[in-house]
């Protein structure tokens, strides 16, 4: 009787209960894993030492990514049997590769080359065995369909870019975690519209795993960081969501997002990509050094220098990214190039607004000083 019930059970028939169960399981596992991680980190002195680039002054545990990974593993293994098992198992395999690479990097030090190879391997597993790849640009730059190997290489580039973008923005309290939380909410919405129950389930589970982390990441006492373990897993998940969403939308012309998927996906991960491309430009073109050389030129570093707190910066960034996502939804029936230009223009203006405001204040102050000295 139980086997018959399981054979005919369809999560879509009980969607609200199903998604709540995924959220609750991930939340429960995460809540009960963090205390153990914190205790072991303190006892074994597995802590991040503040350096010249650090935005923190105290030694802090960096293994928060373990709880996020464990939460997702439990959800996939307990609920995955009713979903797209092949995709979820391959997703879990890729996450596991990055989990151990990130863990080694958090505990010891891992060379950028080994991290890069691990990211390539994790991404290739999903691209090749599920054939989930970005087929084209929906007409942007006149490109609708790319040759198979060009599609695979470009999709690999998207994975590497997003994974490392999330790793690079993890520099102040709550920023990477809050942006990931917002991205998962956004992807849950689009996956429910496109009836991708498997990915909506993982997206909701990720939300459940992130809430306890953010509480500790923002805390003054018993603070914890997600480390490379967490940022690589989150970046990998979100890059898969981006690729899957665009791939499915481009495959079916009846899709609600057939003419807007690339722009809508870009709106969800706009800030990490903007900051990463900006920082690479500054390092390579202006300072003539390696794009991977560490510095304090990130947008969040510049905002810290202007006197904003970690919470203020995080709130400002996430709110703007939410606005861009809503605008992208409103623009989705516009011509694709117009959507693209509007998103880039509005996004750049909104993220530059605070710097323009402070520049104007500085110029006003200088003019007043000049008047008094005459």
Automatic annotation (TrEMBL):
Protein residues bound to Mg(2+): 167, 228
Cofactor(s) essential for the protein: Mg(2+)
Keywords, ordered alphabetically: Cell membrane, Magnesium, Membrane, Metal-binding, Transferase, Transmembrane, Transmembrane helix
GO CC terms of this entry: plasma membrane
Natural source organism: Gelidibacter salicanalis
Membrane topology category: Multi-pass membrane protein
GO biological process terms on file: cell wall macromolecule biosynthetic process; cell wall organization; lipopolysaccharide biosynthetic process
Protein name according to UniProt: Undecaprenyl/decaprenyl-phosphate alpha-N-acetylglucosaminyl 1-phosphate transferase
Sequence intervals crossing the membrane: 15-42, 63-81, 87-104, 116-136, 148-168, 175-193, 199-218, 230-247, 259-281, 313-331, 337-359
GO function terms (MF aspect): metal ion binding; phosphotransferase activity, for other substituted phosphate groups
One Pfam assignment: Glycos_transf_4
């Amino acid at each position: 009787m139980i086997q018959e019930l399981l054979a005919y059970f369809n999560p879509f028939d009980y969607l609200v209960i199903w998604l709540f169960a995924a959220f609750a399981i991930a939340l429960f596992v995460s809540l009960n894993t963090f205390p153990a991680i914190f205790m072991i980190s303190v006892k074994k002195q597995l802590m991040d030492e503040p350096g010249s680039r650090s935005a923190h002054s105290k030694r802090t545990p960096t293994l928060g990514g373990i709880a996020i990974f464990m939460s997702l593993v439990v959800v996939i293994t307990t609920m995955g049997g009713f979903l797209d098992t092949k995709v979820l198992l391959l997703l879990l395999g890729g996450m596991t590769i990055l989990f151990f690479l990130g863990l080694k990097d958090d505990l010891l030090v891992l060379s950028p080359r080994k991290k890069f190879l691990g990211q390539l391997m994790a991404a290739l597993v999903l691209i090749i065995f599920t054939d989930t790849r970005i087929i084209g640009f929906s007409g942007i730059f006149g490109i609708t369909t790319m040759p198979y190997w060009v599609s695979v290489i470009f999709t690999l580039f998207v994975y590497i870019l997003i994974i490392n973008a999330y790793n690079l923005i993890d520099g102040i309290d709550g920023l990477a975690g809050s942006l990931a939380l917002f991205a998962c909410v956004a992807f849950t919405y689009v996956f429910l519209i496109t009836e991708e129950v498997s990915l909506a389930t993982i997206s909701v589970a990720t939300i459940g795993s992130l809430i306890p982390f953010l509480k500790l990441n923002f805390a003054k006492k018993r603070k914890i960081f997600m480390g490379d373990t967490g940022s690589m897993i989150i970046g990998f998940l979100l890059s898969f969501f981006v690729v899957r969403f665009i791939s499915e939308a481009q495959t079916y012309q009846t899709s609600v997002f057939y003419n807007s998927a690339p722009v809508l996906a870009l709106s969800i991960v706009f800030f990490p990509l903007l900051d990463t491309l900006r920082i690479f430009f500054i390092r390579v073109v202006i300072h003539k050094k390696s794009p991977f050389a560490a510095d304090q030129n990130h947008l969040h570093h510049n905002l810290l220098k202007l006197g904003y707190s970690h919470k203020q910066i995080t709130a400002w960034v996430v709110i703007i990214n939410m606005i861009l996502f809503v605008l992208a939804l409103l623009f989705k029936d516009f011509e694709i190039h117009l959507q693209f230009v509007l998103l880039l223009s509005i996004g750049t203006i909104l993220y530059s607004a605070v710097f323009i405001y402070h520049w104007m204040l500085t110029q006003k102050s200088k003019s007043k000083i000049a008047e008094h000295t005459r």
